[in-house]
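User: I'm writing a tutorial on reading structure tokens. Could you give me a worked example: one chain, its sequence, then its tokens, then a sentence or two explaining what the tokens reveal?
Assistant: Sure. Here is the example chain.
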Amino acid sequence: MRCSNMKTAINGGKAALISLAAMFAFCAAAAVLPASPVLANPIFDGWYADPQIRRYGDEYWVFPTTSAPFKKQTAFNAFSSKDMKTLTKHPRILTTNEVTWAKGAMWAPDAHEVGGKYYLFFSANDAYPAGGKREDGEPQTEPGLERYGGIGVAVADRPEGPYRDLIKENSACPQMHSSRFVVSMTS
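And here are its predicted structure tokens:
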């Protein structure tokens, strides 16, 4: 064997040995972990899905789906922070009281600042017919609710609201599936 080939073989063996040692260390560490770790939200208390983060000026804003069972997701909270370590909760920035066409849950907010106004796009209601199943696997039990499923738009002067329903109806054509929609914004 030539010296250069031998050096390559030795270095390859060292790399394999280091990889093997790393694998054993990982397995040993995994052996001491609990079988079912408790999951928690890393930045604020509660379970919040679909978080969307924006930066307005020197503040970060988080707009998540509310921490509640599907049918009780009737309001949005927002969170603000200058450092993403200390968060301020802004409760109920938009509720189904302001969105009169919303007959069920609201979820998946998406915020945008345009021309000094803050727009909050969101999904509301079930777009599935009675007897169908939502994405979470739960059955849709209310007949006729699929006529109201759609995308809403609310507007506010500040990111913390209060928001008001901008178009006063969902922007999805009722004959279309909820994954295909048309959004119309008016100024």
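What the tokens reveal: The mean pLDDT is 73. The beta strands are 49-56, 59-65, 75-81, 88-95, 106-114, 117-124, 150-156, 164-165.
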